[in-house]
Structures are given as C-alpha cells and as structure tokens.
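User: tokens in, sequence out, please.
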C-alpha cells in the first residue's frame, strides 16, 4: 500500500518547525528517522494531513555532558549514541542498548527523540530512559519545559506531548560513583522487537550487598514498569548467591502479566525472571580492581 495524501513540509530551522507545529494545530507529524512512521504511513495506520521533515535541523543533533547531565539532542541517531565517547563514558548502559536496536540500517536512521515519543513498550530507549529517570526538554512557540519521561509516558504508543510541542533534547543524569546499570533483552528473533527486557540500577554497599535498587521491566506489551519502593525489602541484603534469583522471583510475582499473541503469561513470567536474575547477578559481581 501507499500513504494517504498529505502535504509535505521541510523545516529549515527550529523556529520554522515550531511555527509549523503551531499553525497546523495538531495535524502535522514529524519525520525524523522514519523507521516507525513510514511503515505506519504505508499501511495507512497513520493518516496525517501534513508531514514535517526535520532532517535539516542541526540544532537538534548534539551530545554534551555538563552539570551532572548527559544531554542528547532529539535528532541524534542510534548509531551515534552507541559509539559516541561521551555516552560510552558517562552512560555505557545507554550506549549498549542503542547498539542492540534492530539492524545496522535502522540504527543509522532511527533517532532517540522519535523512539521516546513513539512510546513503544518493547523499544530499547523507553526502558533506558525510565531506568535513568531521564527528562525530556520540550519546546513550542509558547516556551520550553522539562518533564520527566516517566510522567510523559502515559501508555503504549501514547506520550503526553502537547500538539504544538517537539522534543529538543533528552537529559540523562550521570550516575553517581558506584552505581551499576545492567540490561538483559530477550528476542524471539534477531533484529526484532524484544519479547521482554529488564534493566537494573544498583549501588552496592561496602560488603558487596544492596544499598539502592531500581528495576524496570517491559514484557507482554505493558507500559515499562518501574520498581523501586517495591524492592525495599532487599535493601541491606548481603551478597548471597541466591539473592539475584530471590529478587527476580519477587519481580515476576508482582508483575500484572497476561497472555499475548506471542506468548502466554507463564512463559513471559519465566523470561522476566531469567532476565532479572542475569541483570542483578552482573550488577552485584565485583568489578576489576575491587575486592571479591
């Protein structure tokens, strides 16, 4: 199939883009990488009256680290995030998750702003942004505001931007010393969307036990679930060999999983348990130069 008719606009600057978004009053969709939008247009699942191409906007293509934040512009491609030295230094988890997205061609075109605003629950960046408690910097002709991504992500494929807003950049807090982040992603087939994924942020205490713990789980089409206070019972636990499995079992038990077209709930629960076990095991493992 081919897309339904639409008017094509090519934004020449950020100000031009903001004026277009304001003038079109919600009837203009943004084309950046197009890895999700173009298939939706071709299948006529999306029928916008106007399409705004933003690929000329260098203002949205930047990576900076300052004031305790890693700032990534909305137009930065997945491949650049995976290979950029600032991302690899300050947020290796984000770089690693970017390197696992789809295929090489997808990583060359897809953008972080597009991935986050699409709010696909099986995509890599929503999981990373929720784990890191990232903030989106939103811009419109009315001004600029910064909103935590956890608050913007309402439900699958539903992100709470106003009709005239665009994402200017994504702010990832640089983790404090001693914070370890790990992710485990389970694919049914290479390059496809994950069936389930788990990411963990863990700070170990002097004994190698758990000082702080946050897990984010995506499985079965659910909105990624952030678990922190639900895991308070494990804080202070020592580095016992059975601890990762105990945490994973608790996580799997409290998730509201249901049967899907791809897998029954029992299978999803087993996959979540395995992913969480691997994540926590790696996060608790002594690093080179640390006492065992």
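Assistant: Sequence out:
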């Amino acid at each position: 199939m081919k897309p339904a008719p639409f008017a094509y606009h090519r934004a020449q600057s950020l100000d031009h883009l903001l004026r277009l978004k304001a003038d079109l009053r919600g009837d203009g969709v943004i084309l950046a990488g197009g890895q999700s939008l173009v298939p939706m247009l071709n299948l006529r699942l999306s029928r916008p009256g106007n399409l705004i191409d933003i690929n000329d906007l260098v203002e949205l293509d930047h990576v900076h680290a300052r004031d305790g934040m890693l700032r990534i512009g909305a137009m930065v491609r997945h491949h650049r995030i995976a290979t950029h030295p600032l991302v690899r230094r300050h947020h290796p988890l984000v770089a690693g998750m970017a390197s696992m997205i789809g295929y090489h061609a997808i990583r060359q075109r897809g953008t972080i702003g597009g991935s986050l605003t699409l709010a696909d629950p099986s995509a890599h960046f929503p999981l990373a942004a929720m784990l890191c408690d990232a903030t989106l910097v939103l811009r419109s002709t009315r001004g600029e505001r910064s909103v935590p991504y956890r608050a913007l992500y309402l439900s699958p494929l539903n992100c709470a931007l106003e009709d005239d807003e665009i994402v200017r950049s994504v702010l990832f807090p640089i983790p404090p010393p001693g914070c370890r982040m790990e992710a485990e992603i389970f694919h049914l087939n290479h390059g496809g969307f994950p069936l389930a994924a788990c990411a963990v942020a863990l700070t170990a205490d002097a004994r190698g036990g758990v000082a702080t713990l946050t897990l984010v789980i995506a499985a079965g089409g659910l909105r990624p679930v952030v678990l922190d206070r639900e895991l308070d019972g494990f804080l202070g636990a020592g580095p016992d060999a059975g601890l990762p499995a105990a945490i994973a079992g608790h996580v799997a038990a409290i998730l509201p999983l249901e049967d899907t077209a791809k897998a029954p709930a029992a299978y999803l629960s087993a996959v979540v348990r395995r992913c969480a076990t691997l994540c926590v095991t790696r996060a608790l493992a002594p690093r080179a130069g640390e006492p065992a």
